[in-house]
Amino acid sequence: MYADDTELHYSSSQLERVEQVLQNGLEEVSNWMSVNGFKLNIDKSVCMLIGTRQRVSGGTLCLSLNDSMLKQVTSTKYLDYVLKRVRGKIYSINRLKPPPTVRKLLYQVYLLPILEYCDVVWQPTNASQTRRLERFHSKYISLCNDSSISGQSLTERRKFHTILQTYKVLHKLAPDYLHGIFEYAVNVTGRISRNAHCLFVPQLRTNYGKRSLYYRGVAI
Q1: How many alpha carbons fall within 13 Å on the CB side of residue 163?
Q2: What is residue 64's three-state secondary structure?
Q3: Angle between helices 127-144 and 154-170 (to 10 degrees)
Q4: Is 107 in the same domain as 147?
Q5: Is 167 domain-assigned?
Q6: In a 3-state reduction of DSSP, which class is residue 47?
Q7: Residue 49 contacts by C-beta under 8 Å, 6 or more apart in sequence?
Q8: Number of domains within the chain
Q9: Alpha-carbon torsion 55, 170, 214, 191, what sign?
Q10: Which domain holds residue 69?
Q11: Which pLDDT tens digit goes with each residue over 84-128?
Q12: Distance (Å, rounded) from C-alpha 108 to C-alpha 207?
């Protein structure tokens, strides 16, 4: 469930369990907003079932909020949403005309978290959209006049985040459901060679499979 930049997530192999946990979460959110004088826009609140095509085929999430059923969608244009938010924030910053040092601070605490949120997940998406993100990013940091950030592209940072996530998985610093997705070559092939202690690169034929962390975490 997401509304603007607020999201609820839950992962389980049982659809009934997903519905139960998310429904409880929705009720807690609704109660908190009522107590604090906020109102949730039901029309902008939707739910989405995420998984492989085979597992989510025919699956339906039955979630309600304030006696209204949430609409279930099959996709969302997340990067378009990110671009819209970043464009608005850059416009606001430019109106203030802050000095370069303040621009750098705003970049680090105001823009970068939006540009990089969940980038390990959405990294292998539409190339034209990621190029648009790069243009926004490059244009803004050029105004900061700071060499410490001017040489860092979003593409390079996303690669670093993927490597960091792979490290966390291998050292069991990531969520439990990610443990074991990477294997060493010797454990798969059973052969001792100079690459035996390297990670095994899965042989995938489809681009869908190659977009997964299971493949990118090793191939990168």
Answers
A1: 7
A2: strand
A3: 110
A4: yes
A5: no
A6: strand
A7: 15, 18, 56, 59, 60, 61, 72
A8: 3
A9: negative
A10: 2-73
A11: 888 888 888 888 888 888 888 888 888 888 888 888 877 766 677
A12: 33
